[in-house]
Amino acid sequence: MSAQNDTSKFRGLMLVAGREIRVRGLSKANLISLVVTVVIVGVLAALPSIIGGDDGPTEVGLAGESAPAMEAQLDAMGGFDITSYDSVDEAEQAVTDGEVEAAVADGALYSEGAASTELQAQLDAAWQAAGVQTGLADAGLSDEQIQQALTVEPLETVSLSEEHDIGGPLDYFTGLIISIMMFMMLMTPVQYIAMGVVEEKSSRIVEILLTSLKPWQLLGGKVIGLGVISLVNLIAMVAVGLGVAAGSGLLADLPEGTASAALSSIGWWFIAFALFGTLAGGVGSLVSRQEDAGSVLTPLIMALTVSYVGAIFLLNAPTSAFARILSIVPPFSGIAMPTRMAIADVPVWEIALALGLLAAAAVGALVLGATLYKRSVLYTGSRLKLADALKRAA
Amino acid sequence: MLEIKDLKKRFGDTVALDGVSLSAEPGEVVGFVGANGAGKTTTMRIAMGVLAGDAGEIVYNGAELGVEQRRRFGYMPSERGLYPKMKVGDQIAYFGELHGMSRADARRSAAELLEQLNLTERIGDNVQDLSLGNQQRVQLAVSLVHDPEVLILDEPFSGLDPIAVDVMGTALRDRAAAGAPVIFSSHQLDLVERLCDSVVIIGAGRIIASGTVAELKAREVKQLRVRVDTDQDLGASLPGQVRHDGEDYLVEGADDQEVLRIAAAAGRVTHFAYDQPTIAEIFREAVTR
């Protein structure tokens, strides 16, 4: 008998979840928004390589007295396709015609519009080096001596801070995408859960549902159903994002741990969603009309927004005290920690602490949300105050 | 057999139910009648387990009613509710599944009910696109989809057109004929009188009268109506208190056999019977007493 009961309990939960998935997940609105978001994520992931342009050699024209020395330097640096011109005018003409991206002749850099900072820096470096080499040769040094004089080991970086490994622009970008996705993937289902609860309450269908379901099955099924929809969306986005990054060769360029940060954000999402989702169901049950849903959801939406805005701020100061606190204290840690993990090396104990606290908060939210729901879902009329709902007998 | 025993319920300072008991035998249709706010809905909600009573118990076939048995009950709440943006067929089948049916059974049963209710062509429409009357029919289908063992229906006839009333009435009698206890509340007392085997009248949270329709009518009998084909005025010769009601004499507080003898002596007796009150009259009498 008890085994049969367990089966039917589980079946009830799954039936509710299944209905949510069919009605909401397969709705046109959700499918369209999924396609749009996936396209946006794909474009964003491909963006760095699109902006970075082609990786082929840069075409540079040379002319004048310094040309041989420059050619030697640029050859040594690599990545340049060099054309020599007989006169400065020819070189200038080649730039205008677009045959070369830039030209260096008699101490001047010619380019159509402003040359990119990177190209300018490279040509500048080559110019300096060529100048030094010419100067040294003129002073009577042999090629070997010049070679020796110019060979300098680059600076070794030694960081004294604990969190030395703060990532570059790509990590920033990854962190940004993670925080945006986490925010969206929590905000949308949280609102849908609250709306769904209010819909069942305002249409009074909940009274029929509760004759064959327990409140926890109804709330749990709703949270699971919308969770599955969001998870499918999230996985689609992560897969497309990583896939495009891998396809465009960006993934290999990404710092170690980017892929794992993206994947672990799914785990963080799980816990954060359990927390926000059940609370949304609980507070949703406090009101009987769709118009009132916004007011009871405000604290949850505020918490999500603070987490998101904080995470964006954190990207600029990942080692600040604010960043450390925000990424450990629930519920903010749900978005802030995976974002911080993308941009900085976070000590394991901080991750473990954040995870533990968030999980504990999620369990608390489950109990609170389910209690609120159970006590107020059949109550109709004006908005039920939180304290009254908690005082009410089930 | 479903027994509701001594239910008590307070909402704050208001006493909603003060020892309500009623029962329905297999195959019995029980009409649950009372003024607005008398406690009908509260009683039915507690019976269906959507509201907890302060005291009392619900007994089904001799044992306390459990969740699993309740899932085989059919319930129509007083405030109707359906998912507005769900298709009619999907919705009925969904409730069938919630009541423990397999998906295939639920789909088949939903299709059959829609056929009976003349809604087959609306099976793929969203509920919100149906007229109110048709939504009511869907609501009925939702409460019948799992072939319930017991029916508890709160105001099942309110808002129904005459055809739907017939469909609903037939459905109730069919379930009863199949052995299900049926309890329904209604303000349409002519329907209660026509459909019910017994009637329970509730007022201010207490049962003020209950019994089979015949019993209640017999209990409330007040006057003997006599019509005699004669020119004489029998007003003075009949015993007891005698009033005129058109051609008829209404006699109270007299030996009916003596009345018959005197009347027969005066002329041909064309009508001789105790007035049977309608359920509506019994109800008015009961609640104003």
Quick overview of this protein structure:
Chain A is mainly α and 394 residues long. Helix content of chain A is 72%, strand content 5%. Chain A has 2 domains: 9-50 and 165-391, no CATH class; 58-150, D-Maltodextrin-Binding Protein, domain 2.
Instruction: Name the average pLDDT of chain B.
Output: 86
* Pattern of helices and strands of chain B: EEEHEEHEHHHEHEHEEHEEEHEH
Q: What percentage of amino acids of chain A are in beta strands? A: under 5%
How does the major sheet of chain A shape up?
Answer: 4 strands, mixed
The end-to-end span of chain B amounts to 31 Å
**Amount of helix of chain A:** over 70%
User: What's the N-to-C terminus distance of chain A?
Assistant: 26 Å
- The oligomeric state is heterodimer
Poorly predicted runs of chain B? none
Order of helices and strands of chain A: HHEHEHEEHHHHHHHHHHHH
Please tell me the total number of domains of chain A: 2
Q: How many helical stretches of chain B? A: 10
Provide the CATH superfamily of the largest domain in chain B: P-loop containing nucleotide triphosphate hydrolases
Domain tally of chain B = 2
CATH class of the largest domain in chain B: Alpha Beta
CATH 2nd-level architecture of the largest domain in chain B: 3-Layer(aba) Sandwich
Shape of chain B: elongated
Average pLDDT confidence of chain A is: 81
Percent helix of chain B: 25-40%
Low-pLDDT stretches of chain A? none
Task: Provide keyphrases for this structure.
heterodimer; A: mainly alpha; D-Maltodextrin-Binding Protein, domain 2; four-stranded mixed sheet; B: 2 domains; six-stranded mixed sheet; 10 helices; 35% helix; 29% strand
Notes on the protein architecture:
The complex is a heterodimer of chains A (394) and B (289). By secondary structure, chain A is mainly alpha-helical. Chain A has 2 domains: 9-50 and 165-391, no CATH class; 58-150, D-Maltodextrin-Binding Protein, domain 2 (3-Layer(aba) Sandwich), CATH 3.40.190. Chain A has 16 helices and 4 strands. Chain A has helices spanning 2-25, 28-52, 67-77, 88-97, 117-138, 143-150, 169-202, 205-212, 215-247, 250-253, 258-284, 290-316, 321-326, 333-343, 348-376, 386-391, and strands at residues 58-63, 80-84, 102-105, 108-111. Chain A has a 4-stranded mixed sheet with strand order 2-1-3-4, with helices on both faces. Chain A is elongated and about 100 Å long. The two termini of chain A are 26 Å apart. With 289 residues, chain B is α/β, with parallel strands linked by helices. Chain B has 2 domains: 2-214, 3-Layer(aba) Sandwich (Rossmann fold); 220-288, no CATH class. In chain B, a hairpin with a 2-residue loop joins strand 1 and strand 2 (14-24). In chain B, 40% of the residues are buried. Chain A binds chain B through residues 5, 8, 12, 15, 19, 22-23, 199-200, 203-214, 378, 393-394, and chain B through 45, 48-52, 67-68, 70-71, 73, 75-77, 79-86, 90, 94-95, 97-100, 142-143.
